[in-house]
Design brief:
210 residues, alpha/beta, Rossmann fold, seven-stranded mixed β-sheet, 7 strands
């Protein structure tokens, strides 16, 4: 999201159901509290959803795009959770946080933006505390172009042309289920910690070993 137009298009798309399901599934992992890092936060809609539902947490909402974070400022300004969410501009491949700093590292749809996504997973593993939760979700690459077209028509029917193209490009750039399983296996996690959780998403849920 290098331009303000792209960031606005993203922010204006209806992510409410996807964000609600993300938080539902995160909360199903057990007690969610403490210091949380959200990688690729975009305009901070998921941290806002989380903090309106959970009182005992603080979120560092991190993104590399200044344009996205500029819009996040406005989203936070009208949110009752503003005081518990801090915005941070950072490269998820080279985080400036200390080792073992966060109780939870979560992310929605950052992996498909990264040419070498294992670097982001390694950084998440570095900054989460031993026993801490890793919760990543992203788009799952469809098997063929026909399925891409079907998903775009199904989930972006009301979007404008730029928004539909963004979704189409993201689906094509996404990892397959097998590819993300190979990445987490290379980090020492069982490949069954990654599951397909919708017709277009995979989710990785794991804890850093003690």
């Amino acid at each position: 999201m290098d331009t303000i137009e792209e960031a606005r298009d993203y922010n204006e798309m209806d992510h409410s159901e996807v964000n609600r399901l993300f938080v539902d599934d995160l909360l199903a992992c057990g007690e969610i509290s403490g210091d949380i890092l959200d990688l690729g936060t975009g305009t901070a809609l998921i941290p806002i959803e989380l903090c309106t539902r959970v009182e005992d947490c603080r979120v560092m909402a991190s993104d590399m795009s200044a344009c996205m974070l500029d819009l996040a400022v406005y989203n936070l300004a009208v949110s009752p959770a503003e005081g518990r969410i801090q915005l941070d501009q950072a490269d998820a491949k080279q985080l400036h946080f200390e080792d073992e700093q966060f109780d939870i590292v979560m992310s929605n749809s950052i992996v498909h933006h990264i040419p070498e996504p294992v670097s982001v997973l390694r950084e998440a593993l570095r900054v989460v505390k031993p026993g801490g939760l890793l919760f990543f979700r992203d788009l799952m690459r469809p098997a063929d172009a026909d399925m891409v077209g079907h998903l775009v028509a199904t989930y972006a029917a009301e979007a404008n042309d730029r928004q539909r193209k963004m979704f189409d490009d993201s689906l094509r750039a996404a990892l397959s289920l097998e590819e993300i399983r190979q990445l987490v296996s290379s980090l020492g996690f069982s490949d069954d910690t990654v599951q397909a959780t919708s017709d277009r998403h995979w989710t990785w849920i794991a804890r850093r070993p003690l």
